[in-house]
Amino acid sequence: MGTDTSTTAASRVSSSDATNVLVPAAIASAGAGLIHAAAIGVHTEHIGLTRLFIAAAVAQVAVAVLAFVRPSARTSAAALAGVNLVVLAAWITTRLTGIAWIDGLQRAEAAGLADTVAALLALVAVAVATPVALGRLRATTRVPLTGAALLVAVLAVPAMVAATNHDHDHDHGEDHAHGDAAGHAHAHDTTHSHAATVDGHVNDDDHAHDDAHAHDDDHAHGDAHAAGHAHGDIQDVGIVEPSWPRPWNPDGPIDFSDVPGVTPEQQERAEQLVADTLEILPQFADVTTIGELGFRSIGDANTGFEHFINIAYIGDDHFLDPRYPESLVYEVDGEERTLVSAMFIASNTPIDDPELVDFGGPLMEWHVHDNLCWGLNDDGVPVVKAVTDNHGGVCPPGTVLAGGDNPMVHVWIAPHDCGPFAALEGHGAGQAATGTQQRADQCTHDHGDGHGGHGGHGDAVVPPRPYDPELPIDLGGVEGVSLQQQAFAENLVARTIHYLPQWEDPAVAEAAGFRSIGDGGTGHEHYIQWDWIDDDVWLDPNYPESLVYEPQPDGSKTLVSAMYMLPGDTSLDEIPDWGGPLMQWHIHDDLCFTPDADTPTVAAVIPLGGQCPPNLVKMDPAPMIHVWIRPHECGPFAALDGVGAGQVAEGDEHFCNHAHGAH
Q1: pLDDT at 558
Q2: N or C: which end of the chain has fewer CB atoms below 10 A?
């Protein structure tokens, strides 16, 4: 009939409702740009992040305008696809791993309405513009315009509204509802969403098992208490029990009264928070069910405490709410997990933020972790893999420094010597804002035993003589140490400083039969020569049973200490009194190793007297002592912190030699 029956579908679309295929893609890009523009105002606390949002908004709108003006040009399609692909890739990265070098984006974040819609629109722009740019799709292909524009508007407008409220894990919204300890909502002028930084408990040395958890009645506080708080001169005065922190027993009354500097409002809030946490948190007691709620382990069970985080709770509006805890802490006993604490986290908030500081006043101390290195495990889950040798340091290759901007606080539902808000020990204690002052979430004092946490030597009058391996060794002035014991200890330190550096290269140590026990992630890695433990050579730096290295950010290892060990059948009460109170030996009767005959590694920590999980073995508890060739806060014979401190003789406490510690 003279009519072209091969007319394409595109040509049959009404011209009043159809346009070039690139125009709807440009509309999608413009919609994503407007969402990013709307979000700029709630990210002003991070200047760099604000500038990135401005750049993204301008770029997405600019390429959209270019596509409107030149809808048939492949260069327009290429620009449209390129800009939106970069924005989309950045969004995916921030949801999976975070971006370590951008302040405010260091940690992975949960997806919200606004950012998800913006990402979806960017994806549409990429999906349409890319084949046009590559010549796989004709730019003149016509598609319905009205429907595309309406769809973008329906998606973008609600997302823009959401972006101005609480679109991002780093948002500081206005007048967010904060669940108080009674489960109600308080309106605060400034609120903080929560990020998933975990209390960094990757360290066998990080976590001393507090009395209520692992040591029954011995009340050993571990070196982390003493090493973290050098006191200078040890005065010959009585120990004055501070009013806070107090030993915490959740079965007793909740009474935080008579603490200097605490207002009635702060006391009420703190007491109510603890009361509600005791009541509500046990709903998470069964660790086998919390995975369904979104909690994931950070893989730190070998420290004695395992932390689980919930990404879905990171960007919510709940603050100090035990119904929505950002992290749960379980005590580890083989395969058993006992819920002992909530760990509440405030995202990218200054540690001295007035809202944090004022909530409980001196009763609660928030802390951060700016020395934790994160990576992915075999299942793609973020875990803590290492710690830097200084705060804000450089992480080993393959890991990312993250979490330093996220203050956190514990609330214990199990007994704790250092109170209901106690931090863990060692690296687990993190960094607080108190500087050199006593932290309210730790305790170096005793609870009435008269020793002041110094292993029975707290009343010695000793002028400080900091231990420096580069200076003459002088360990005099400690009460109860004879001249012969002092001479023995000084000679051992001097010989170790002189001869131990022959092992500074781990390769040389490995050639001599030393093998790592796989604890480098703790900040100290132990190499053991298993054949030398039961020989007849003792306290000889030419034949040390164990060497201690500090892993460095560049992957190298620095030799810092010898760890001399006696035969495994030697008990602590059989050790000759070589150095008197200067030298305190310890054992490890709570470590489980892999049954590898050549290279056994530490795989679990169990309570004293417990049994190792199947396929793991416990070694003979050989007495051991460190001799440091680097300055140490607790002197040349200092044990490590937390679990790494081991167990000392019955009736003793871990001794920190403040008089000869590094100040």
Answers
A1: 94
A2: N
